[in-house]
Sequence to fold (187 residues):
Amino acid sequence: MALFDPVVVALADHLENPGDSYAVAGKVDASSYTMGEKEFTLEDGVSYDVVLTHTGDGVLVSGIVRAQATGTCDLCLDPAHLDIAGEIQEYYLFDEPDDPDAFEDGFEVIGPTREIDLAEPIADAVIMDTPFVVLCKPDCKGLCPTCGANLNREQCDCAERAAEEHAASDDNPFAVLKNLTFDEDDE
Fold:
């Protein structure tokens, strides 16, 4: 299943000779995308600005995609706003290669219609620039694992209380020392 609707670019009349370039810019009208189990909303779709270059045996597509996305912070569950700016670097061949194994990253062949679909490279660029760990801010304190308080907004005393309880408990490896007394008469 494709992440975005097709973004078809017709090459006819644009890239006739090796070295020719053709600039294409536009916007994918998408409202959201998913990465694994994470859902992100897009404020204004995904804009792209690419240059297609005739290389002799194919077309090199290079450029950048930009988007404003909102996901959920992995630590505190508040909204996390992301600035996406991913690079596109994709190569399309005019004909099936003699040695397909020579292309370790795979390849796409431009069909007889001389059209290419940029939806997959745009989606790949967005996914590659989306952080694996999503944070609402770099120093997010997250949620208290005991009471669930959002530590960015309020302080709880669960950590101090747990430390005091551990120090007083018999599970503490130093618990045997709490009854230790020193005789000062042994001089």
The mean pLDDT is 87. The first strand starts at residue 8 and ends at 10. The CA atoms of residues 80 and 136 lie 4 Å apart.
